[in-house]
Specification:
- By secondary structure, the protein is α+β, with helices and mostly antiparallel strands.
- Helix content is 33%, strand content 29%.
- The termini are far apart.
- The radius of gyration is 19 Å and the shape is globular.
- An eight-stranded mixed sheet has the order 8-7-9-10-11-12-13-14, with helices on both faces.
Amino acid sequence: MGFHLHHTVILVDSARFRKQLAIFYTAGLFHWSFTIGGLSMHPMLNIAVRAARAAGTVIVRGFEKHNEVATESKGLNDFVTQVDKEAEQAIIYKIQQSYPEHCFLGEESGEVHGKETDYQWIIDPLDGTTNFVKGIPHFAVSIALLHKGRLDQAVVFDPIRSELFTASRGQGAQLNGYRIRASKPRDLSETIIATGLPFKNKSAFGEYALSLNKIFHEVGDIRRAGSAALDLAYVAAGRHDGYWERGIKSWDIAAGELIVREAGGLVTDFKGNNDPLHKGEIVAGSAKVVQGLVKHLK
């Protein structure tokens, strides 16, 4: 038996109050939401959105002078900038203001342990760093929340286009407050499929090329844009009909995975299994598209 709050606007400044309500919501004790600018959202998603926007401010400021941003190499074709680091710290700071005991897994900071081990935020502060460094305006902030090992909240924010993709488990996916749905193409020949190249492990290109060749001859066309988070967000919004990639990390895809699922899409690994988050590979799209891709990826 739960409580239902209808047409209620709640203005909450207390982090402690927000935290307690979020615990009740997650436990299913009642059903409610914040309404902000017409967008109803779970309180933890609200905090994630604020964190993503804070990071976006850092990124846009840096992008205006991207040629002057300090850049380091973490490995072959793998870069990190001062902006990546500052954006990740902005995210963690904003979340810790409300949830100081939560855990974090960030691309730049690694694991940050907290007392509330049921909650882990997975963060890519700047997905598409190479695009950023080269002045290509296609990158995003990616923030996801795992609750007891399950994806629960997700934000992918494109600060250049001001596009905010969000999802809460069981509540659907939205773009700037409007519901989005993944496409359901009748045939693979009608589809636009996104992918990523194995640029960090070029020795794997031979195997990738075999799959690419087979897929290319069945689909309408293929895109490679350089941001896994946005590739998945675009699948959720129906802009891309599908997506596959290998050699990725959990912070690249965590938020996008939940957004696609909540938009009615299917997300698997290359074998068609349902939990790709920590497997380094992902396939996304409608059931028909995923099936058509997986048969060439197994």
